[in-house]
Design brief:
With about 500 residues, the protein is α/β, with parallel strands linked by helices. It is built from 15 helices and eleven strands. Strands 1-3-2-4-6-5-10-11-9-7-8 form an eleven-stranded mixed beta sheet, with helices on both faces. It starts with 7 loop residues before the first helix and ends in a 14-residue tail after the last helix.
Length: about 500
């Protein structure tokens, strides 16, 4: 968006002061998408006419200066229902689905004055760690277009990292906001489970999914949280706990009195040397800012990956049963009977990774295996949450690398699903525990690929997690670095 302010706060303030118009900012964002998206495939749908009409309407509003996200362009992961805009979850089975209603987060963003410019590419039904499972082709990382942006919210991460939009929403089931944010060198925040309504989010694993923001600064992420957090009568899992003003918790100087826990026992192997160096440097910065760094133990965290993939696939098996060709979405033609129609529809509509997870989930829920796998996984999930509760009695936040490696090459792990699943080794525990977690840039590899540090906090202590991340971000210059893209590169 050349010529316009770069952060959401700066855009909002410029429009409110009359130094810019919502329509002008929207046109600049759409021009940027037109220039850069052909190389990245970050967007599934671009809603140019709708966005421009919305921006013109905002410019004419007499009360526009009161809107907290006035005229800010934002992109939505393509698994959030948006009335009148195709919402496919990047799957063939929903290729022509246009929702008749808005997700709660969409309603709240528009009430805050945001302008939705389009829907972003993702792994099909949010199942993946690289955005290579989209039925519409992979998204590419703006820092190196031969590499993955991470996943499953890779389109949202790439769109923000490339400067096409200042903000985007993603969904995080096992790291799908934080991991791509880290691989793309931006901020990604997964709120406490229940802090943001899931109404209108196409479900993958209902007890794990959470909507959250991508941004270039922690302050911008907090602005989005101020707009979307809170109870929702349409979602019984949305918490009724009071919602603080997240943005007002930022801007503090130093981390005196803050304790940061580091589970060193989880970092003894499997972490890339460049990632480990950047992480250690980030911890040193936190110390310089006055934080006390302590060792903590998370004994059951090594079991998080198998526990996650049992629970997530089980819930996916149940949630995706609704896509049968009867009610909406794809319907296979020339079926000889109802069961044949089910089989043909699901066979043609679902991709390989989705089928793999449905089969795994159905297996662990089947008679004779439920107790051995699913029930046991739920028990260990409780132990993982207790580990975090004990550690967070001593520490205010727990720090880990967001991903054990920087962005890997497209195609590098597609034939090895276990290696792909290990991309989420440091992120899944926050979902299993329902805790808030954020990633912020903390350095680069020798090949100039971004690295992120993850901070996890206590349940409903989202504001404190944002505060610590904000202090760290302002003490460093990593968040200011952006990839050098050229149009259609």
């Amino acid at each position: 968006m050349s010529g316009t302010p770069k952060t959401a706060r700066a855009i909002r303030d410029a429009i409110a002061a009359g130094d810019a118009t919502a329509a002008g900012v929207c046109r600049a964002a759409l021009d940027s998408i037109t220039s850069f998206d052909p190389a990245l495939n970050a967007f599934r749908t671009i809603s140019a006419d709708r966005a421009l009409a919305r921006a013109v309407e905002l410019d004419a509003r007499p009360d526009k200066a009161s809107l907290p996200l006035l005229g800010v362009p934002i992109a939505l992961k393509d698994n959030m229902c948006t009335r009148g805009i195709a919402t496919t979850a990047s799957s063939r089975i929903l290729e022509n689905y246009v929702p008749p209603y808005n997700a709660t987060v969409v309603e709240r963003l528009e009430a805050a004055g945001a302008v939705i410019v389009g829907k972003t590419n993702c792994d099909e039904f949010a199942m993946g760690s690289s955005t290579e499972n989209s039925a519409y082709g992979p998204t590419r990382n703006p820092w190196a277009i031969d590499r993955t942006p991470g996943g499953s919210s890779g389109g949202s991460a790439a769109a923000v990292a490339a400067g096409m939009v200042p903000l985007a929403l993603g969904s995080d089931t096992g790291g799908s906001i934080r991991q791509p944010a880290a691989l793309c060198g931006i901020v990604g925040f997964k709120p406490t489970y229940g802090r943001v309504s899931r109404y209108g989010l196409i479900a993958f694993a209902s007890s794990l999914d959470q909507i959250g923001p991508f941004a270039t600064t922690v302050d911008d992420a907090a602005l989005v949280m101020d707009a979307i957090a809170g109870a929702d009568p349409c979602d019984s899992t949305a918490s009724g706990a009071p919602v603080p003003r997240f943005a007002e918790s930022l801007g503090q100087t130093g981390l005196a009195g803050t304790r940061i826990g580091v589970p060193r026992h989880l970092l003894s192997e499997g972490v890339d040397a460049d990632v480990m160096r950047a992480f250690d440097d980030a911890i040193a910065v936190a110390r310089d800012q006055g934080a006390e760094v302590i060792d903590v133990e998370l004994p059951y965290s090594p079991q998080a990956i198998p526990v996650y993939y049992i629970i997530a696939t089980a819930e996916a098996s149940a949630n995706l049963a609704r896509y049968d060709g009867v009610r909406y979405g794809l319907r296979a033609e020339e079926a000889s009977a109802l069961i044949d129609m089910y089989e043909r529809t699901r066979g043609a509509g679902f991709g390989r990774e989705v089928k793999r997870r449905i089969i795994l989930g159905t297996y662990v829920l089947s008679a004779g295996y439920y107790d051995a796998y699913y029930r046991k996984a739920q028990q260990v999930r409780t132990l993982i949450r207790r580990d975090y509760d004990r550690a967070l009695e001593r520490a205010d936040v727990i720090a880990l690398p967001t991903s054990p490696t920087a962005a890997f090459k497209l195609g590098e792990r597609t034939e090895d699903p276990v290696q792909m699943y290990l991309s989420d080794v440091f992120t899944v525990s926050a979902n299993l525990s329902g805790l808030p977690a954020i990633t912020v840039p903390c350095g680069f590899t020798r090949a100039e690929l971004p690295i992120g540090i993850q901070l996890t906090g206590r349940a409903m202590d989202d504001a404190n997690v944002l505060r610590v991340a904000d202090v760290y971000e302002r003490a460093t210059s990593w968040s200011a670095r952006r990839p050098a893209l050229t149009a259609h590169s």
